Amino acid sequence: MTNIQIPSGLLDSNVEFFSHNGEPMATHEGKVKSLFELPSNILKAIQKDLDANYSVSIALELAGFKTSSEKLKKYTVCRFGNYDNDPDYKDGQLKTVEYFNCGHRGTCPMEGIVCDHLWVNERVISPFEISMIQQLATEKTIPVIAEELKVSINTLESRKKVLFDKLGVFSRARMVSRSYELRILNPSYVHCR
Length: 193
Fold this sequence. Notes:
With 193 residues, the chain is an alpha+beta fold. It is built from 8 helices and 7 strands. The protein has helices spanning 40-51, 54-62, 68-80, 127-136, 142-149, 153-167, 172-181, 187-192, and strands at residues 15-20, 23-28, 31-34, 89-90, 93-94, 118-120, 123-125.
């Protein structure tokens, strides 16, 4: 018998949030729903979590999200936008923030405030390191990457060594593989560059 992992929210009352074209969606009670189609207790839990993070609310407002519904939508996408098999809402509780590669990593002014930094082996992968990963995942040479990232070749090599240590890898190929595992890279992102 084959054991198929069913996404959270399809066969239970848990919720798995995800981003679809920048809009917060969720699987819940066997259906895909937009954020505001979810029961009010779930929306209240997200709002309570947002309200408990004053700096997040300020960052969202400074980024142009003025209404409470705009803030709630953006907060949900940034905090829980990655579709995985771990429920984001279970037993009446929101789970911890998850890493989501929204396509703006490394350039978003709200990074690390509204969304979470990527933690690997209890170390943060910085926005610059995410940019490095995106560049190193291409067929570009080290001199070309260094120029595009506006650093010297020596600096890039030094930063690459630190990055590889954080990821627990020893080669560029393994770094790419590990980056897919961590969802830093996704197939559409690499092919779009």
